[in-house]
Structures are given as structure tokens and as C-alpha cells.
Hints:
The complex is a heterotetramer. By secondary structure, chain A is mainly α. Chain A contains eleven helices and one strand. Chain A has one domain. The mean pLDDT of chain A is 87. The chains are: A mainly alpha, B mainly alpha, C mainly alpha, D mainly alpha.
Amino acid sequence: MHAVVDSLAMIAVSYVMGFLFYGFYRQLNARVQRRWGPSIWQNFFDNMKFFFKSETLTHGPMFFFGPMIIMAGAFTTVLFVPFLKDSDWLQGFSQYGNLILIIYLLVVGPLGNALAVGSSGNPFGVMGVTRGLTRLMGLEVPFFLGLALVMLQHETTSVHAIMAAQDGLANWGLVTNPIAFCVILLPFIASQNGSPFDVVGAPVEVYAGPRVEFGGRLLGVLMTQNMMMSIAKLVLVVDLFMGGATNILVLIGKAFALFLLTTVVSMVFPRLKTEQAVDFFWKVPLGLGVLAVILTVWLPSWSA
Amino acid sequence: MLAFLDDPKVLHGIYALGALTLFFIGLYGLLAKRHLLKMLISIAVMELSVYLLFIGLATSPGETAPILSDGLTAFTDMADPVPQALTLTAIVIGLAVLGLGVSLAIQYHRLTGKVDVASMTELKEL
Amino acid sequence: MTLPLTPVWFVALPLLLAFASPLWVRLRLLMPLLVGTPAALLLLAFVLLPEVRTAPLLETIVIAPPLGIHLQLDSASWILVALISFAGLLTNAFIWLADGEPYLRDRRAFVFLLLLIAGCNGMVLTGDLFNLYVFLEIAGVSAYALSALRRDASALEAGLKYLIIGSVAAVFFLFSVVLVYLQTGQLNLAAIAVGFGEIPGPMQILIGLLMLVGLGIKAELFPFNFWVPDIYQGSHPAVAGLYSGLLVKVFLFVLFHLVFLLLADPKVVGIWLMGLGAATMLIAEVVALRQEDLRRMLAYSSLGQIGLITLALGFGVEATTAGGLFHMVNHTLVKLLLFLTAAVLLRSFVSAQLADLAGAGRARPLAAALFVLGALAVMGLPPLSGFASKLWILKGFAEAGVFWPVALILLAALIEAGYYFRWIKVLYDPSVQLQAVHPVGRLAYAPMAVAAGLIILLGVAPFLVDALFSEGAQALLDRGATLTAVLGAGS
Amino acid sequence: MSWMLRLLFLAVSLSPAALLMAWDADLSWPLIEGVRLSLTLTPLAGFFLVLLALVAPLIALPMLRRPSDVPSLVLFVLLLIGMQLLLLAGDFVSFFIGWEVMTWSSYLLLLRSPRTDMVTSQSYILFNLASAFLLLAGILVFYSVTGDFLIRAATEVSRPQALSLVVLFGLAFLIKAGTLPLHIWIPRSYDQAPDLFSAFLSGSISKMGVYGLILLLTLFPDALTGFAGRFLNGPAVGYLLAWVGVITSIVATFKAISQEDMKRLLAYSSIAQVGYITTAIGVGSSLALAGALYLALVHTLVKVLLFISVAGIVLQTGQRRFNDLGRLIERMPISFFGVLIGIIGLAGMPPLPGFAAKYLVFVSLVDARWLLLLAAMILASTAAFIYCYKLVYAPFLGHANSPEAREAREAPWPYLVPQVILMGLLVLFGLFPGLAIDVLIDPVLVGLQMAPIGSESWAKLSTAYGGYDGVVLMLVFGTAFALVTGLFLLLRGRMRRAGSPHDLSFAGEVPTAETPLHYGAGMGRELRRIPLVGWILRQGTQGFYLGLAGQMRAAAALLGTLYVGRPQTWILIAVVVFALSLAVQAMMGGL
């Protein structure tokens, strides 16, 4: 019973956090661009509107099941990320998982999406999926390397253990392993589909992208999972580098701080083409990661 | 005047020289002549030179033929009979080979009109 | 009256039957006798086997000791004699059963085939240098004639070429025989062996080189083997199979028999022979890569295997020698199988060219399957017999810690695979529908099936025969024992 | 062919399983003097025998479909016997015999396909024989060191001997496993082999190279550490091997993405997967070996599943290129699920066991502190998503691109039964990641005298670095899926199926049947614009090997000129050689 309530709570928290954060993002973005922008609740309204559309077009069973898979993937991801530390609540099933599992779970959903897009028969959608996977290939390398540095630092893959080791500001991952944070920061932005790495789903420049065929309730599902997934990732980084959170307010605060950081980065840079993005990831963040490995792993072992 | 020839060393030297000369003549013919019959003859010459060498070096001056007959009842001062027997055998064999070779050459000529070994090109590397 | 079962029958029986051939034509016994003779010899060999294994059989038809015809059947020569009889049996059976080319089924072929067997048996058995020459020429003449039997341009060309090069080899060999006799006054091999060490060094070298050229040409060693492909290509494949399977083996055996018997320390010559063997093997295998004619390809492959056997025997250690002898047997079986397959394919499709045989695997599935089997065996792939002997040879080298021959042998096998598998691929080319021109009777496959069966049997269960080869190797290598056996304990 | 023979064939295909059950004693018999063959069942061999026992009947079943090809069946039986001999071998000679029987029988099976061309068949057999002969050379060196052929740890080996042994054996097994740059024979042969046999090639035969590599570790317990010491927390030599494996994976993955043919894509993917296994073996720790074995297990199941599915598609449509297929999901739904489950396993996504395997390898890399390798491996395994997607999209989704694809029917049942069984196995191992560890892998590790991984329960995979629970994961995902779908369907509103497949948002236009709408082979073409990927795709070793073959032919032509057809030349050469050697002897001997 506890598990059920806890799970539902986690899903609810991530959903609420999701649309609020993105509402804020749209506001901030508009202000930077000297527009008024939509209200902070706008995402919620949009989402509800999609859900209550009276008609939804499908392109076959896989087109329908794809979004279901991606939604289930999002739920599972959320449930395997511990939201709080030293608490019985908002834990989901995180003690049954680990960091590597979470990273892979982040990919399960997009696979369902890709199946649905393929099923739609729209070549532009498939093109978008391919670009998405290509970008994933680029960002995952430095991202995972950065996380591996963390895993190595704590000699575990358990998020709980990593969180537990960061008691107090001085032991935050940000402080003890800043270089790893730098390594993952840009890939993290990309994984959040943030600018400048957002060409995959860019709705304005190209009439394409994975979601080209979706509408109505199915689009609502996709939007929901997107927000929840973003929150899961944010919380994960908070857990790993910012010592986790002991209660929900701290969690929101830390996550928001991190969100703000990524948002600021996103707003400054122009959008990159997919191949430019991949090349960038393999040069700058990965180069930084290699440097980090040399500095924090090789050098100590040689000097020892 | 020719008494020095009685010296077995000299005699053997001459035999050896002659046989070798003959051998090289045969070899030359074999290598230089392209007519099939000439080649077969050259082979025969080479064989002959070997026989000559054998017989020549196996006998020394003063030895008699190894045949027991009137008055000759002991094996003293006789030439070694083995080389001669062997040479006879070898000659027979050589003749057989030569006969076979010539008959093949004739058949070949009848069939193709060719006698030149260099024009035998039915079988060759690519 | 009971005929004594002595080694002399190995030479006498085929000779007698060959020369009485007019009789057999009349009585329509030609073909049965052609097959029956080697079968009888094989039987005789097996009857003599228990005796041979206890002690070598010596037979002297005396004129006056040490002059006379010496025949010596020890464990090593027994292998060769049995092999000769068996190879003769298979080939002759094929000639009979395949019911093919008439020129192979008349009296002349009968005479020459039996003479070839007699000559080979004689060479292996004789203990006398001059008789060796005689038998060499008997085998040679019958081989020249067999090559030319078809009497078309290519067959005559092959016969003539063979005759010329063979005669030259014989002259060189005769020269060496003459020199040996002049130096030692002996013709008995054992007696020569005792006296050989006292011949002056330069003369020893001269004799050795003359013999090497003479026997090297006959045994198809590298700088003397350029004639081989032509002759094999021009002859009927069944006959070529006899050359490759039987004649060369005999000459190789003779060569090594002389080396191991005459020289007190065969290692001196062995290293050179190993070099020749390695060169023969590698060069032949490489050249075989580009052959487009089946017979020619098999000829080069045969050269390669000869090189391998030379390499093994030249090393002169019991394991490699036993393996080498075993490999001789295996190679004979395999090459007979392959050449008989080639005969079937040649008859069926009138050509032995690679391009004309594409897709033959469908038209003649059995022949192609046997070809595959033979090819696998010749490359020494388990579980076929070629593997067991090759392993034995390689093991011998490894035991001695000498690895360059191992590397060369394996390299050669790889190159060999390069062309054999090319042929196999072409035989099974799916894009060509090939139609057989001439039929081939089912019975023709019987000898091939026997060879194939033996290849598999010896591959799976080589332990049935390995003792024979070990004893053979000991007999071949143990100079002292041979000398004592022939000349008495005193010498 | 009568049903008796079919039954016999099936029975033989079950022989590995029977052997596994019934084996209780060692066998030995002599081959030749000084060589005894002995058969024994080690835990390591037992693991690979399990794989064989799983795969053999599953591939045998569809092979029996009429019209059956009797030679293929015979060769397959030979192949099975050879592989069993190889696995049971207690000495190197029987190992080699099994290895060779496997090599040539698989080659002959390869020839049964009408598509096999000369280059493919030659490269297959030559590479494999090169591997076999290197192995034989290694065996002989081993024999000269230890004095017998038994497979056992060699302790009294000097350094140069050990080095040559490791190089010979290592090269032999790496060729079989197909690591770069020795992989060139794989894509061609997997592509052109008979469709079902490709499954066996990739699923079982490639594992023999893996078996050999692991065996090598047991031969020289200190081979990895003994030579060059340790690098960070792992053996330095293994570091090299691991990089070889990972580079293989990366290159093969990118090559796979750029393929336009299903079987070729799977072939490259095989190379990549075996590359991961090689990497894991390079790490050499108990965790890593467990990962390697786990990967081997998963790869076997997945590749057999995928190749059989693809074989079914090829059987029903006659097409194998991505561009010529499409929209088969409606026509071949079971095959679609086969491929779907297959790619999820192949990509190593949770909850299927591919993830458990990758997890173990990743953790072992972290444990060895080889993070750069880890990053490189992540690159390969993320890039693999692209080809996985291509594999499921191009044949099954999108638009049907050929008349055959439009009219195809579901594959016949002998193709479907193995697929269903394999899917079941994959799900089973995914649910219980500890099952494979407990039953299959730990005995091997114990047999190799390494620390077992252990598992609290079959549902859990646990390591010192943490683990996960397969049952919980699957339950959460399943519940979430059911919940989401249920809620979705409860919402008010109507679902409407698009009227035509061309009812698309297509840049403001209305596509027609002529509009090219299948992305198929185009997928991954953009990838070439990434500098590194473009560079990798432009490289190739084929030129080198073709050049080598050309050099060989030139050498053959050159040496062939010696074999002229003129008797006088023959005699001249003989005489000249005679004279020269006489002269040399005279000079040397001071005649």
C-alpha cells in the first residue's frame, strides 16, 4: 500500500514540477526575447486540452502503443529515481535499481516513440527519430563518462549510496568532483532536449521531427512524459551532484537551481545541426572527460 | 714408344678425359639441338660415354678378358668381369629406351608433322 | 609342389605375367589378371607381414657373394611394397570397372602397368645398386610408354618429354653407380655403405650430387621438377595418379634409403634435402594457385606434398620419419582418389579446365563429393588421414624444438587451401547448369570409394597402423641393424 | 526424404542437450603414437555446450522444411559433432580436430547458398584455416613446452615461449571471433550464407572464438598480468585486448548502421557484439568474465532469434534489402515481435537480459578504473540503437516498398516456433537476471577458480557495486503500461484510423503512392557528416587483403615461369644447379 501511494505521489510530484518548470522556462525565454510570453500554467492547460480532444488519428496499433510504452517508460524512470534521501517517501522502487539502469530506462521511452513514429509512415518523422538517436549517440558518451567518474568516486552504482555519501555542502559532488559535473552539464542539456541541441524536435525550422504525426490525446501523452522525464533527469543530477534533498521543498529548490543553470546556457547559444552537435560532444565535453580521467584516475594511480 | 700408355694412371686419365669429352658433347647436343632425333642421339652419346668410362677405368693394361678357356684356368690378371656385364645390361636398357624414344618421335612426327622439341607446346604453363 | 612365398614374387610375378601377355589376350584374361596381379601381391605382402615384423626378410639369388641379386624386405620397404600393390590394384580396378578409354584396356597398357609395378617393387626391394638402376629404367620405360599410350599429340608430347628428362636422370644415376663401383668395387648396398666412408671426400660429394640430380629429377624435387606438370597433364589421369601416388614415392624412398644407408651421419645431407623439400613445397603450392587445368593443379599439389614428405624424411628423426612414411601412404590414397575423380570428370565433361567444370557438382555429385573429400584430406584437415600423418610429422618437429618447418608446412597448407577451395567452389557453382557428355558407370566409383573409405578409416583410427610406421621408420633409420642383417654380425 | 530421417536429424540436433545431461565420465583413446585423445566436460565448456544445446534444435527445426537439402542436413550434423568434440576436448588434438571439422563443414554449408560468391567463400575458408593453423602452431609450441597435449595451465613456461603461445593462440581465436582487422570474412559470409545457417554462424560458431579466448586465460593464469604488469586496476595486456575489442565494436557498429541489407547489418552487429565480449575478456576480472559469458548467452539467443526472423522475411518476400521491404508488421506480426524483442535484447535495454550483461561489463570496467574504455563502449552501444531501430523500422514499419512486401504472409510455423521459444527465453532471463548467473555463470567462475558473482535470488542481479531486481522492474513497467493504456482508453474521445497510409503531414503536400515515403536505407546516411564517423566509414581493410591476394597471384605467375614446357630448359637448370653446387662444395671444401 505504501508503495502504491508513494508511486502515485512521485508521479504527481514530477508532473507538477514538470509543467511548472516548463511554464517558467517559457516565461523566462519570452522575457529574454522581450515578449510577454504565456502564463506559467500554460503547459498544464495545453496538456489538458490535448487529453480532452474528442478525436485522435492513428496509423495502426503500433502508433497507439508507442506512446503507451513511452509513458510507461517515463513512469518507470520516475519510480526508479529516489527523490528524497533519508526518507521513506518519494522513493518509489529505487532500491531495486541503480544508476546505470536509470540511464538505460531513459532510453526505453524514446524507443517506444520511435516505433510509433515509424509506424506512422511519415519519412520526416523517421528522420527526426534518426537525428534523435544520433544526438543520443553523441551526448551519451561524455554524459556516461561523467557519471562513471562519480560511480568510481563512490565505488558504487547505487544512487542511494552516492546520495548518502554527500552529507553536507563540502561533500557535494559539485564540490568533490566538479570536473565530472562540467563534463555532464552540456550533455545533460542536450538530453533535456534543450537549445542549442534541440534540432531534433525543432518545431519551427523544419516541418518534421518525431512528433510530426501525433495529435490529440496521443500528443498529450507525449507531452506529459516529456515533462516527467525532464524532472526525473533533473532530480537524478541533483541526487548525484547536489547531495540530494531531505524534503520536497529542498528538492524543488535544488532542481530549480539546476534548471535555471541549464536554461541560461540554452538561451545563449544558437541551434546546432545534429552532426555539429555530435562532433561538439565528442570534442569538448568528451575531451574534458578524458582530461578528468587522466587527472583523477591515471595520475593518482601512477603517483601511488 | 707408346709404352707410357701401359701406365694405368695415364691410360685411365686418357679414358676419363675421352669419356668426359664425349659426355659433354652429348650434353651439348642435348641442350643445343632442337631436333627430336638429335636429342635422342645426344642422350645415347651421353650414355655411351658413361659405359666407356666404366669399362675403361675398370680395366688396367695387361689384364686379359675374364673368360676361362684353354690355358687360362685361374682368375689371376683378369679384368674385373662385373663392369662388362653391367655395361652390357646397360646397353640393352639404353637401346630399349632409345627405341621407345625414336618410335614415339616418329609417331609424333606422323601425327603433327613436327620434329622440333621447341614446337611441342601442347602442354605448358598458362 | 608349393611355391615358397618369398619377396622375389613381388618382382617376378608381374614381370612373368606381363611377358606372357599374348596368352591372356587370347584367353580374355587381360583385365582379370590386370587387377588380380596386384591383388595377389597385396595378399602376399600381408602374408609376409608377420615375418617381416620380427626380422627383415633377405633373399639372395646368388651368383657369387657379394655379387648377386639381393632382395631385402624390411618394415620400411614392406610399407612401400604394400602401397605399390594397393595403388596398382585400385588403378587397375578403375581401368577395368570404368570401362573407359580402350587404349588403357589393351595388351600394351597391361604390359606397361605390370612392368611399372614390377619396376617399382624391384627398386624398393633391391639391395643392389646396379639392380636399382635396372629397375629404375624398367619403371621409367613403362612410365614413358604409359604416358604416350593415348597417341595423340599431347600424349606423345608428354611421353617424349618424359623420356628425354627421364633418360637424362638415368644417365646421371648410372654415372654415380659407375663411380661408386669404381671407388668401392662393390654393388651390394650394405657393402658399399661400409666402404663409402673411405671414399675421398670430393668424390663422395660428386657421387652424392650425381645421385641427387638423377634421383631428384625422378623424385620431383625442386630445381629438377619442372617437367612434372606437363607430363601429368598429358597423361591419362589414372596413369598420372600412379605417377604421383606410386612412382614418386618409390623414388623418394630410394633416395632416402640411400641417404640413410650410405651415410654414417645423414644429418649433413638431411638439412640440404630439407631445404629442397621446403622449396619444392612452397614453390609448387604457390604456382598451383593459378592453375586452370585440373590435372596440372593436382600435379603441383602432388609436388607440394612431395616437398612435405622430403622435409619430414630429411629431418631423420623417428617421429618425422614415421609420419613421413605415413604421409606417403596417405598422399598416395588421396592422390589416387583425386586423379581418379579427375578421370571421371574428364570423361564426363571432356575437359579438365576449371571453366568447363563449373557446376560439375550437380551433374556428378558423387565425383564432386569424393573430390571434396580428397581435397580436405590432402590439406590435412581432420578427421581424415592426412591430418594424422601431418600431425605426426609436426609433432616430431615440435619434439625436437625445430619450428621453421612447422611454420612452412602450415603456410603451405594454407596456400594449398587457397586453390583447392577455389576448385571446390567452382565445382559447386550454382549459376551453371552443366550436362555430362559421356556416362560413367557406377562401378567406376568402387575403387574411389575404397580409397575414400581408407582415408576416413585411417583418419579416424590411425592407431590401427601406427606401429607399422614406427617400425618402418626404425628400419629405415637404423643403419647398423641393416648392415648387420646383410653382412653378418662381424662387419 | 522420409520422416524417419527427419526425426533422426532432429534427434542429432538434440545431441548436445543429451550429452549435457548424460555426460558423467571422461573418455580417452589413442590416435597415433604419443597422442591420446581425451574427452572431458569442464564447467567452461559446459556453458558453451548449453548455448549449443539451446541453439542447435531451434535451427534444425526450420531446416527441415520441405524441400529439404539433404547435403545441408548431413553437413549440419557433422558441424554439430565437430563443435561437441571441440567443447568436450580435454586435450589440444581433439580440440583442434573439432575446430577443423567445424571449419570445413561450415564452409561446405556456406556453399549450399546460391548467393555465395568466390571472394566470400575464399575469405571464409582462408581466414578460418589461418586461424586453425595458427592454433595448431600454438598447440605444437605448447606441446614442445609441456611434453603432452593436455589442456591445462602451463606453469613452467619461459617468457618468450609464453609470448609466442599467447600471440599464436590469441590471433587464432581473434580471427574466429572476428575482431578488427581480422573481421573481413564475417560480413560477407554471414550475409551470403544460407539464411538459417547465418543464424548458426553468428549464434554459435562465433562463440567458439570466445570460448578459445577464455580458455586462453585458463592456460596462462597470469598471462594477462604477467607480461606487462597492471594498468590501473586491471592487467595491462588485457587493456590492449580490451581496446581491440572496443574499437572493433565501434567500427562495426558504424558499418552496421550504413548497411542496406538486413543480413549484412546483422553480420556487422555480430562483430560489434563479439567485440564487447572481447573487451570484457580483456578486463579479466571475475565480474568481467561473468559479463562476457552473459553477453555470449544473450548474443546467442538474440542473434539466432533475429537471423531466424530475417530468414522468415527473406523466405516469404525474397527481399533482403531495407529499401525493398516495409509495413510487414501487419503481415508478419509474430516476426515483428521476434525482431522487436531481439533488438531490445541486442541494444541491451532493460528489462531484457542484454542489460544485465552490459551492466556487469560496465561495472567491471569501473572496477578496473578503465573509464576511457567505458566511454568508448558506451559510444558503440548507443550507436547500436540506430541500427537496431533501422532493423525494426525498415522491414516492418513505414510503407511497403515492393509488391512482395505488400503481399507477404507470416513465416511458416517451423520458423515461428524457434522465435517464440527464444522470445520466451529472453523474457525469462530478463525477469530473472540472477538465474543465468546462478545456474550458468557461477559454476564456470568457480571452475576457473574465480570469485562467483552470487545472487540472493534469481530475480536479482547483485554485485559489489549494486544491482537491480528484474522482477520488480518488469512488474513496474508492466503495471505502468497497463495503467497508462487503461487510463488512456477511459478518457473521453474517439480513436480514428487514418483513411489511407498516405494521409500524412507531408510538408504541406498530399503524398501519393509514387512519393518515396520509406526512409529505409536512407537512415543513417546523415551520419557520414560527422567527421569521425565519416572517417571510420571510409576506412576498410578489404583493399589490404585483396592486395595480398594479388601479390600472391603475381608470385604464382612469376614462379610459374620456371615451369616452362621445354625439356632443354629443364635439363639446363638441372645441369647448372649440379655444376653450381659442385663448385660451391669445391670452394667450401677446398677441393
